[in-house]
């Protein structure tokens, strides 16, 4: 690393004020601070000195996503072999899946970073670190059979209209990765819903009677006899978006986020609590077969519930900021997710819409939490004055 540091220091004057490449300062700064901890601090005003910066925080999130990514690649190959009757091994399945995932990842990062660098250069700002996570999240919430041009279009929409128009990372209202998924869902619904998108077949023909429907897809159509088992959902050997199927892999990522203090345990816990409670209430009501056939614990392991709770709802920018607000925000996400699943069979997932809805109301939740705190303090002040 010392050799790289010397080389960076050697060319750095060209990108500083007065240098011939000063117009590329934002681009150079992005690469330098990605490789090394920044050698500058806040010049004025109160600030916190810490050993970690935003880029390192985002890298921790990417590391936490790796278990879901690795399992997702294997599951693509596994679902392919199950559908076509091939008996492959763990490595052949992983590399088949990785061959489908990697192009999606490259397109996502190429478009996201290209737009991010362009806006940074135009504005003369530093390159925002959030794109490191957004570019990795987008492929994980897509089906394995998604066309690459569609990924590029969705990513461009998410970065431009979900982030840059608000001023970049830290200013966006909605989670950009979820906006990319929402863009595909509402613009090209056949590519991210139904049966076909979830299992990659290549040039093979599926076995007679094989169904590529997700567990929630089967539940939405009333085919409860085809519903996957709890353990299939827990391990992740079910059709679905690339990174969303394995509860175990997602919980490994959650452990990394919680141990490092990057993820909010309040949001994660309250999302699961809200989802479990709403599913339990529906089980008690029992108005239709869906309410009685899908238990609370199965709701939590099927679909994108766990992935959304751990990696989407905890977005530090679009989520609630106050501690009390995080409990309310997370609980409502979990409750609304199950409500959408059960009440609206045309949309069997629910997590995406629930998070985007609560992204809208997160500032309002924080506002009323702060106002309530102010009122409590004012009452204490009045009480002290009265006693005096």
Folded structure, characterized:
The chain is mainly α. The protein folds into 2 domains: 9-35, no CATH class; 54-373. The chain is 64% helix and 0% strand. It is built from 16 helices and no strands. The protein has helices at 2-11, 25-35, 54-84, 90-123, 130-140, 148-162, 176-187, 215-220, 230-235, 247-260, 265-285, 289-293, 296-301, 305-312, 323-343, 351-387.
Please summarize the sheet with the most strands. none
Number of helices: 16
Share of β-strand residues: under 5%
Alpha-beta classification:
mainly alpha
Q: If you compute it from the alpha carbons, what radius of gyration comes out, rounded to the nearest whole angstrom?
A: 23 Å
Proportion of residues in helical segments: 55-70%
Order of secondary-structure elements: HHHHHHHHHHHHHHHH
User: Mean of the pLDDT scores?
Assistant: 84
For the termini, the CA-CA separation is 65 Å
Task: Give the count of structural domains.
Answer: 2
Low-confidence stretches: 44-48
Task: List key phrases describing it.
single chain; 388 residues; mainly alpha; 2 domains; 16 helices; 64% helix; 0% strand
Ordered list of secondary-structure elements with their pairings:
Layout: H1 2-11, H2 25-35, H3 54-84, H4 90-123, H5 130-140, H6 148-162, H7 176-187, H8 215-220, H9 230-235, H10 247-260, H11 265-285, H12 289-293, H13 296-301, H14 305-312, H15 323-343, H16 351-387
Summarize the structure.
The chain is mainly alpha-helical and 388 residues long.
């Amino acid at each position: 690393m010392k050799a790289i540091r010397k080389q960076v220091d050697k060319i750095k004057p060209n990108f500083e004020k007065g240098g011939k490449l000063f117009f590329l300062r934002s681009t150079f700064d992005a690469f330098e601070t990605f490789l090394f901890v920044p050698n500058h601090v806040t010049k004025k005003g109160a600030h916190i000195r810490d050993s970690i910066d935003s880029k390192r925080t985002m890298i921790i999130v990417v590391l936490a996503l790796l278990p879901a990514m690795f399992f997702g690649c294997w599951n693509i190959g596994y679902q392919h072999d199950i559908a076509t009757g091939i008996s492959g091994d763990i490595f052949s399945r992983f590399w088949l899946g990785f061959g489908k995932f990697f192009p999606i990842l490259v397109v996502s990062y190429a478009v996201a970073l290209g737009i991010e660098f362009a806006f940074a250069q135009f504005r003369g700002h530093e390159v925002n670190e959030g794109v490191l996570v957004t570019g990795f999240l987008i492929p994980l919430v897509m089906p394995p059979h998604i066309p690459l041009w569609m990924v590029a279009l969705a990513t461009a929409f998410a970065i431009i209209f979900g982030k840059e128009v608000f001023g970049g990372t830290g200013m966006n209202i909605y989670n950009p990765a979820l906006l990319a998924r929402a863009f595909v869902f509402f613009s090209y619904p056949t590519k991210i819903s139904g049966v076909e998108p979830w299992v990659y077949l290549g040039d093979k023909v599926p076995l007679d009677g094989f169904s590529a429907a997700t567990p929630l897809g089967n539940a939405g159509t009333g085919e409860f006899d085809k519903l996957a088992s709890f353990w299939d959902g827990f391990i992740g050997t079910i059709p679905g978006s690339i990174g969303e199927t394995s509860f175990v892999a997602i919980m490994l990522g959650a452990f990394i986020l919680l141990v490092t203090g990057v993820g909010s345990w309040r949001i994660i816990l309250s999302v699961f609590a809200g989802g479990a409670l709403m599913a339990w209430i529906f089980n008690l009501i029992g108005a239709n077969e869906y309410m009685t056939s899908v238990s609370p614990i199965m709701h939590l392991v099927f679909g994108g519930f766990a992935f959304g709770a751990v990696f989407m709802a905890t977005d530090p920018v679009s989520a609630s900021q106050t501690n009390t607000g995080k409990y309310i925000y997370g609980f409502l996400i979990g409750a609304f997710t199950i409500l959408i699943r059960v009440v609206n069979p045309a949309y069997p997932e629910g997590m995406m819409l629930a998070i985007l809805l609560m992204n809208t109301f997160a500032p309002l939740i924080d506002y009323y939490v702060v106002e309530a705190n102010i009122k409590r303090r004012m009452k204490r002040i009045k009480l002290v004055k009265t006693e005096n």
